[in-house]
Amino acid sequence: MLSQLGEEAKLLAGGQSLIPLMKLRLAQPSDLVDLNFISGLDTVDKGSDEIAVGALARHSDVADSDVSGQVPILRDCASGIADIQVRNRGTVAGSLAEADPSGDWTPVLLTLDAQLHCLGSQGSRMIALEDFIEDAYSTVLQPAEVIRRVRIPIPPAGSGGAYLAFKRSAQVYATASAAVQLQLQLQDETCRQVRIALGCVGLTAARATQAEDFLSGKHPSAENLASAAEAAVEDAQPVSDVKGSAAYKKTLLRALVRRAAERAVRRARGEQLEGGHEYV
Ligand SMILES: Cc1cc2nc3c(=O)[nH]c(=O)nc-3n(C[C@H](O)[C@H](O)[C@H](O)COP(=O)(O)OP(=O)(O)OC[C@H]3O[C@@H](n4cnc5c(N)ncnc54)[C@H](O)[C@@H]3O)c2cc1C
User: Fold this and answer.
1) What's the pTM?
2) What are the start-end ranges of the E strands in 36-93?
């Protein structure tokens, strides 16, 4: 249908970004193709080595699913997005397609090396999330291409992750956010497979590769985690806006990365921790 209707037609999933934009007349699609009439797309499935989140899986489906217990960074993210009404309608795939630079899912799924299984009239293809978002509100999706599912590799044993977003209130996007995922080596308790991603730091969420390199192979001491947070802030280029100055956001990010890393380490050691979003 998308191919037939042409480039001005839009896919509708949860409608939690598209409908507000239409109300503001910032989006005026010629037609809406409603995905909600197709059954079987709302699944969150765990296979032997990956989790597959269907195109119509809502934030609340992820928050409530067992897989979130096993990969707790997913619950950190899903359970704190906006309010329960938004979480019950909005979808993970829709969030990625929207590519809002302050969206919660992109930094989290960047740390998990997520891949997007996309379907279009030319067939299907897998796109690494890292290559998917081109710019603010812009992705490599073709006009008639649909994200069918988001594929998330299950982190290896001994892994832990945490997401922290700082928000002025439940209904607004984060001012700054940080996601950390790592594995603790059993023998010497050094950090492996370190992934650190930042949200609200410019046109797209971004990996903090300097910080990842710094922490890789090191013991997660308080000093090392603080230094990694410092390196992440050096990588970050937040912009001043109504939510705060660039300097204020850097201060926030420094604390968020350090604390998310501490939580990731505690989870890697087997501790059960709840949380994810912090409010002013
Ligand atoms: C009050 C409020 C507060 C919010 N706060 C936050 C927040 O703090 N953090 C956060 O991350 N998000 C927040 N959101 C956004 C919410 O997470 C949305 O659910 C999400 O951005 C879009 O998902 P959706 O399913 O609603 O997509 P829709 O609004 O239906 O679609 C969004 C865009 O994605 C396209 N699209 C949707 N699904 C697909 C697909 N499968 N394949 C290809 N293209 C697709 C649509 O064509 C459209 O262009 C908030 C929304 C509201 C209304």
Assistant:
1) 0.96
2) 44-46, 50-54
Distance from the alpha carbon of residue 18 to the mean position of ligand 1, in angstroms: 7
Domain ranges of the chain: 41-100+113-153, 159-279
Tell me the pLDDT tens digit for each residue of 178-209: 999 999 998 889 999 999 999 998 899 999 99
Q: Can you state the angle between helices 246-268 and 222-235, rounded to 10 degrees?
A: 140
* CA 75 and chain centroid, separation: 11
Q: Which homologous superfamily does the CATH classification assign to the domain defined by 159-279?
A: CO dehydrogenase flavoprotein, C-terminal domain (3.30.390.50)
* CATH architecture for the domain at 41-100+113-153: 2-Layer Sandwich (3.30)
Give the Å distance between the CA of 269 and the centre of ligand 1: 34
> Which of 86, 118, 119, 278 best tests ligand 1's pocket when mutated (most atoms within 8 Å of CB)?
86
